[in-house]
Write a structure and sequence with these properties.
The protein is an alpha/beta fold. It has helices spanning about 15-25, 40-50, 60-75, 85-90, 110-115, 130-145, 155-160, 165-170, 205-210, 220-225, 230-240, 280-290, 300-305, 320-330, 335-350, 360-370, 380-400; strands at about 5-10, 30-35, 55-60, 80, 100, 120-125, 145-150, 180-190, 250-255, 260-265, 270-275. It is built from 17 helices and eleven strands. The strands form two sheets. A seven-stranded parallel beta sheet has the order 4-3-2-1-5-6-7, with helices on both faces. Strands 9-8-10-11 form a four-stranded mixed beta sheet, with helices on one face.
């Protein structure tokens, strides 16, 4: 087999940078054919200078002009495009066979769904695609014959712990009777505030919320980890990826971030995937599956790790996790509203326009106010997303005026 032709949606973010780091070590296995970024034009330009993709995409015409100028001066013959439609073009016009879907938030939904419909190997690091359009997305994977491989460390860990053939059963019809899988256990570090007295959470600053104790991540996902909304979104993603009922998917706080998730089997066995808290491990596994390649990750030394602990999350401390569980059980438009309101609230918090504890309040009010309508098409999904964002923004504006 020749080199895999890889498109990276979100190449300047943490996942994108780590993906390129793995690819850099294996030029015989991978060729980068498309890179996309939102606003980090200079970093994208350096990536293009090194990897020479066929297509590069940025969000704005000004960014495209800046990128084109840099690449022209560098004699790099990469086609530069801009705008949301160009994200889909990066998939359809680059003749890629593998798509790393690493755009954070709802912005990644349309191009990730396009990759699934095109029958690509989709390396899913954008959990919002399944949170917002779970059934539509899984139908697209099934109908096109796409390969869907999870990249989130928890879902990738579960994928590694499942028996051969399990994912194919999910894609064709979620029936696991022959596999003996009883429960999925998603682990969570608990973020930087797992031991902070609840009375002190009202004073949390964006800088403190972004200081994750174990992982190096972007600002938005760091806040989601602090509130544990990230784990709630991952629970919804796991429901669609693996097809087990919601009551068979548990969340456990595991402060050391060594066990990345576990699968409990009918016979009493629990199989866990362990490793350093380094995203290059799941990225390398997704890129090379079913092979395993060098990822540049130092080996895990259990004698240096110390005790490993696990405990149930306190939903009073993490109301966002409780809201996500409720939205998952409600189905329909509720997960879309959950995600949209959270994105708006987190952005306001990061801009110091909303107190930390009001993130969950905005999400809860939005869930209560928005009707839980069916979402049977991409247009339905995008309409609910737009309306939920408008509502959340209005709620934040009203709070600020008080």
């Amino acid at each position: 087999m020749g080199r895999r032709r890889v498109a990276i949606l979100g190449s300047t973010g943490s996942i994108g940078v780590n993906t390129l780091d793995v690819i850099r070590s294996h030029p015989d296995r991978f060729q980068v054919v498309a890179l996309t970024a939102s606003q980090q034009v200079e970093l994208l330009a350096r990536q293009c200078q090194e990897f020479r993709p066929e297509i590069a995409v940025v969000s704005s015409p000004d960014g495209a002009a800046r990128l084109s100028k840099i690449l022209l001066e560098s004699k790099v013959n990469t086609q530069v495009l801009f705008g949301p439609e160009a994200l889909v073009s990066a998939i359809t016009n680059s003749d890629c066979d593998t798509v790393m879907a690493a755009i954070v938030g709802a912005a990644g939904l349309v191009p990730t769904l396009a990759a699934a419909k095109a029958g690509k190997r989709v390396l899913l690091a954008n959990k919002e695609a399944l949170v917002m359009s779970g059934q539509l997305f899984m139908n697209a994977v099934r109908d096109s014959g796409a390969e869907l491989l999870p990249i989130d460390s928890e879902h990738n860990a579960i994928f590694q712990c499942l028996p051969d053939g399990f994912m194919g059963a999910v894609k064709n019809s979620p029936s696991h009777a022959g596999f003996g899988v009883e429960e999925l256990w998603l682990t969570a570090s608990g973020g930087p505030f797992r031991d902070t007295p609840i009375a002190e959470l009202s004073l949390i600053t964006p800088k403190e919320a972004c200081a994750h104790p174990n992982w190096v991540m972007g600002r938005k996902i760091s806040v989601d980890s602090a509130t544990m909304m990230n784990k709630g979104l991952e629970l919804i993603e796991a429901y669609w990826l693996f097809g087990l009922p919601l009551d068979k998917i548990r969340v456990l706080i595991h402060p050391q971030s060594v066990v990345h998730s576990m699968v409990r089997y009918r016979d009493g066995s629990v199989i866990a995937q362990m490793g350093q808290p380094d995203m290059r491990t799941p990225i390398a596994y997704g890129l090379s599956w079913p092979d395993r390649i060098e990822a540049g990750v130092p080996p895990l030394n259990l004698t240096e790790v110390g005790p490993l602990s696990f405990f149930e999350p306190n939903l009073d401390r993490f109301p966002c996790l409780a809201l996500a569980l409720a939205a998952a059980r409600s189905g329909g438009a509720a997960p879309i509203v959950l995600n949209a309101a959270n994105e708006i609230a987190v952005a306001a918090f990061l801009e110091e326009g909303l107190p930390y504890l009001q993130i969950s309040q905005i999400v809860e009010i939005a869930l209560n106010k928005m009707p839980n309508v069916p979402t049977n098409s991409l247009e339905d999904v995008l309409f609910v997303d737009k309306e939920a964002r408008r509502l959340a923004s209005d709620l934040i504006y009203r709070l600020a005026k008080k």
